[in-house]
Amino acid sequence: MFKQVVSKQMNENFDICIIGAGMAGATIAAYLAPKGIKIALIDRGFSEKSRIVGELLQPGAVETLTQMGLEHLLDGFDGQDVYGYALLHENDQIAIPYNKNETGLFHGVGLHNGRFLQKIRASALGNTSVTKLEGKATGLIEDKNGVVTGIKYTDKTTGKAEIINAKLTITSDGFFSHFRKKLSNNKKSVTSFFVGLILTDCPLPHSNFGHVFLSGPTPFICYPISSNEVRLLIDFAGDKAPKKPFIIEYLKNNVEPYIPESMQSYFNHAVSEQNFKVMPNHYMAAKPVLKPGAVLLGDALNMRHPITGGGITAVFSDVQILGSHLMSMPDFNNHDLLQKKVQMYYKDRKHANANVNIMANALYGVMSNDLLKNAVFQYIKQGGNCAFEPISILAGLNRNPKILIKHFVAVVLCGVKNLLKEGLTNIPKASRMFWDAVKIIKPLAKNELTISGVFGPSRH
Ligand SMILES: Cc1cc2nc3c(=O)[nH]c(=O)nc-3n(C[C@H](O)[C@H](O)[C@H](O)COP(=O)(O)OP(=O)(O)OC[C@H]3O[C@@H](n4cnc5c(N)ncnc54)[C@H](O)[C@@H]3O)c2cc1C
């Protein structure tokens, strides 16, 4: 068996070592590096990948990127502005534009995640303060007091075990994180799977809008990701990945009948090509454990269902919060201050992301329930604040949980009222819908809104 030998120790001492140059790790490197902070950025591979994740940036993500001075990274690779969301249910549809700011409408962006990530990485690596390392991080190094002082990794080219020393290690190694078990008490669960297809040259019922289709047995969504490509993501309930023959049958029986006529031929062509990509959808509330010298960022810390496209809104928000705390450090030698900054980041981020997380999983729960999805459609159709406040939450622009809970309760009441208007024989249905709604919102509110949930119990 290949025996790993630590061949050399990097002579340099870094301020920060970042494990994972994905959306979170590469962006925080691009944000911090211009300040001269010495960073080691390690990833298993720096080549462009084709993935079905992170292809729609909600306006909240675009706004945060702009506040960090990095919005130019969205230019030059055929990303498409997205101006709002359309809901399609049976023969009815509603299109709600995003909210307005001083200069016009807020907008999101549909894009190829791999292309965008390469631009973020290039921006980070363009700074002399960033050292690029290609290899697999294999472990954290701790001193005798349990302080993390760096990492071990296997260099991709030489296959040798190496060491990096850093004052702070940011672990942003994504949803299969190897490091989160040391730094959190997180429990992840698979809510469902998304199967991704690309429809080429397909016109959308509402051009440059995100679309949510509610009529089928499970929800599906689509949005433009380039000037001639639309990403279609179809939800498969359950915790086992669907196999190809089942996917084809499911698409024919449970999706095709609900695809608008104008999109049918593009959909059928994509199905016939069988170029499916399947990804698990997770929910994982953040339960970090404070460990001196290390901090979790991105999907390694916190995940929500991707139906609302909220992941990168949360990731960029975390990058901005952690980045701002780290930028306010006079230097990285004061361990106690560094620890305080990490603690403040965990607290601040919890408040900032509660709405994004609750909205994602509550909406998924609602859209997977026949009575509740009717109720939400009827509620939003009323227009005014019944449409504009919910879309401001979906967009990641409104982070006030009271507004979210107000609308959630109002949707349920609207559903109960409509059912009872049809006749008192609907009382059992209305009661079932009410209790389904409680089952959806209660655990989310407990995880995301309670202060006691900021930190998990210490492992030490
Ligand atoms: C199906 C699906 C669709 C989604 N769609 C959207 C969307 O439309 N909009 C949205 O906002 N969000 C979406 N999300 C969520 C979003 O993609 C994630 O929140 C985001 O990509 C998380 O970024 P990250 O940097 O934490 O992880 P990643 O982007 O996965 O990056 C992790 C990086 O760590 C590296 N790495 C891992 N282990 C190691 C190791 N041991 N050593 C070195 N490197 C390592 C990997 O190579 C990778 O580059 C979606 C998620 C899913 C599952």
Task: Give the structure's gist in a few sentences.
The chain has 460 residues and is α/β, with parallel strands linked by helices. Helix content is 39%, strand content 25%. The protein folds into three domains: 6-74 and 112-187 and 284-353, FAD/NAD(P)-binding domain, CATH 3.50.50.60; 191-277, Alpha-Beta Plaits, CATH 3.30.70; 369-451, no CATH class.
Topology:
Layout (H helix, E strand, L loop, with lengths): L5 E14 L3 H10 L6 E5 L12 E2 L1 H9 L12 E3 L1 E6 L2 E6 L2 E2 L2 E2 L2 E3 L2 H13 L4 E13 L5 E8 L5 E11 L8 H4 L5 E12 L9 E4 L6 E7 L2 E9 L6 H12 L5 H13 L3 E7 L10 E3 L14 H17 L7 H33 L2 H12 L3 H10 L6 H22 L4 H23 L11
Parallel strand pairs: 1-2, 1-12, 2-10, 5-14, 12-18
Antiparallel strand pairs: 3-9, 4-9, 5-6, 7-8, 10-11, 11-12, 13-16, 13-17, 14-15, 15-16
Structural features, described:
This protein has 460 residues and is an alpha/beta fold. It folds into three domains: 6-74 and 112-187 and 284-353, FAD/NAD(P)-binding domain (3-Layer(bba) Sandwich), CATH 3.50.50.60; 191-277, Alpha-Beta Plaits (2-Layer Sandwich), CATH 3.30.70; 369-451, no CATH class. 39% of the residues lie in helices and 25% in strands. The chain has twelve helices and 18 strands. A seven-stranded mixed beta sheet has the order 6-5-14-15-16-13-17, with helices on both faces. Mean pLDDT is 94; it is low at 1-8. Flavin-adenine dinucleotide (FAD) binds next to helix 1, strand 2, strand 3, strand 10 and strand 17.
